[in-house]
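Tip: read the tokens left to right.
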């Protein structure tokens, strides 16, 4: 083998070894100066307000320690069993303020969206649509009362398309789909409608009309009076002609007698 070729081969080996050493040095430096990471709990699925977090619904991700997230949970155990107060998207970091306090009762609070109010109204088997109201359904709320002006009772739709939050103490639909007989129905409304419902409940009887969950259209709201029901029944029956019971007067006969200058009048039937 020519000496020139041997020298070239040795030079290549030296250069290759130097590059390898340099690259290894840089990699080791990068590993030594690698940014520290922390773990945060994130939602494994989209979750709505009111849901109770299950173990499979949260997971952990790596997050740069130099960019901490205030209030983030570092363990999935810190989130499991707590109720969601604000809706969360899949992959969103779970913050403590998004969940109910640990160890507290779930209740209705997590289900009340910001700016909304929960109002409980008295009901019964008939008023509550024969027991077929359930949490999550949509209803119209009506009131029948006697107005201050006018003798006739009036029925008026107070609120339309309100969501039922609870039926009695039940805040989740029955798994077997059975209807429940209750005397209190809690609905979710805005503050203005809450005032209307509270006032209406003091004036008369409250009724619920069950509506299609996908129907959010606002219908015309015209009060109905008792006279409107009478008009719907049709024309009033005609009066019955009855023969007169009056007895006809008998005729009176008159006989006039003239005797000379004397005149006599006698009347008889």
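Filled-in amino acids:
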């Amino acid at each position: 083998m020519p000496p020139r070729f041997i020298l070239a081969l040795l030079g290549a080996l030296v250069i290759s070894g130097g590059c390898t050493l340099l690259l290894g040095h840089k990699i080791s430096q990068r590993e030594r100066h690698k940014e520290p990471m922390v773990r945060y709990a994130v939602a494994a699925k989209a979750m709505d307000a009111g849901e109770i977090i299950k173990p499979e619904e949260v997971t952990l991700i790596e997050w740069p320690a130099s960019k901490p997230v205030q209030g983030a949970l570092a363990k999935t155990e810190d989130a499991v069993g707590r109720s969601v107060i604000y809706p969360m998207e899949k992959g969103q970091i779970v913050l403590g303020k998004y969940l109910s306090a640990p160890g507290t009762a779930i209740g209705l609070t997590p289900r009340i969206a910001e700016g909304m109010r929960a109002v409980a109204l008295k009901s019964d088997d008939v008023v509550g649509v024969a027991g077929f109201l359930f949490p999550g359904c949509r209803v119209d709320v009506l009131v029948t009362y006697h107005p201050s002006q006018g003798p006739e009772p009036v029925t008026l739709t107070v609120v339309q398309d309100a969501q039922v939050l609870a039926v009695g103490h039940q805040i989740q639909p029955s798994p077997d789909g059975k209807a429940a007989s209750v005397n209190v129905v809690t609905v979710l409304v805005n503050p203005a409608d809450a005032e209307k419902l509270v006032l209406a409940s003091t004036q008369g009887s409250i009724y619920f009309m069950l509506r299609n969950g996908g129907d959010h259209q606002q219908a015309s709201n015209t009060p109905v009076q008792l006279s409107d029901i009478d008009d719907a029944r049709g024309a009033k029956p005609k009066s019955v002609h009855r023969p007169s019971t009056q007895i006809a007067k008998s005729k009176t006969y008159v006989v006039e007698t003239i005797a000379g200058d004397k005149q006599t009048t006698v009347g008889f039937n």
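The chain has a mean pLDDT of 79. The chain has three helices and ten strands.
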